[in-house]
Amino acid sequence: MAVMKSVLEAIGNTPLVDLERLARHWKLEGHILAKLDHLNPSGSKKDRIALGMIRAAERKGLLKPGQTVIEETSGNTGNGLALVCSVLGYPFIAVMSKGNSVERVRVSRAFGAKVVLVDQAPGAKPGTVSSADMDRVMAETERLTKELGAFCVGQFHNADNAIAQETTGDEMWEQSGGKINAIADFIGTGGGFAGIASAMRRHSPDVRCYVVEPENVPYYNGKTAKEGAGHRIQGGGYGREVPFLDRALVTGCVGVTDDEAMEGARLLSSIEGIFCGFSAGAHAVAARKLLQGAEKGKTVAIVICDSGLKYLSTDLYP
After folding, report:
1. In the CATH hierarchy, which fold is given to the domain comprising 7-43+159-311?
2. How far apart, in Å, are the Cα atoms of 97 and each of 124, 131, 139, 204, 227?
């Protein structure tokens, strides 16, 4: 392998692993393939979109040399942008809810970013992030963007988010030798699902694409969220429409509870040696449910979204 010019060249091209030990533990027929995107430099899959959206903004003339970059984030996109901006020379501000883990805050600060923490909505539980919490984060991001004349990346509305994550799907298809029957992906911005699903459908229109959601915030499943619903699966499940997620890509939805997501993450760590966060645990459980039902005997692909190192202050790994 040649010497890289910067850490940015280390983003992407992560391994794909067959979780055969976990499948045996759950007594499943079929395979779960896991894309180890927690091995990206800042510890999450969001490095892909951070680099992709910044480079696209430069090409389009939307981002000027030395201009401050700002973004609303649950943490991982902020970590990725902090890394990318540190290398490319842009000041960066991450706006986050206080409901997110403290590790995500510290990672962004370690890369030289300023982090603005926004109070949670009244009645919100610490360690959860609700739709109301994200509304507060977005409002503060909008205010600071205008005040500072900053460039707001806007991951929830930026189509370059999904485009950047098509690389994930292309890599998964090539690494598996085209043997993927279905994918399952947790909805945050929707960029991961949209990008991977679009890539898969280019390779084969028969690949089935499942949205993963918190059990109590079933937005894409067409059900009603529980009143005041919050959940522990950080990075998504905000119970709202995401603009660039084409519903025609959605085969179905899988609900996962907080406890199931935590169980999945702990089993990934203890059985497969994959130290990961809540959303990866949710992915593993969603794949289990599919292999016990509609996808029995098939191959389901998932992404390991981020590292368990970002949750050591939580009770995920007591």
Report:
1. Rossmann fold (3.40.50)
2. 11, 11, 12, 39, 20
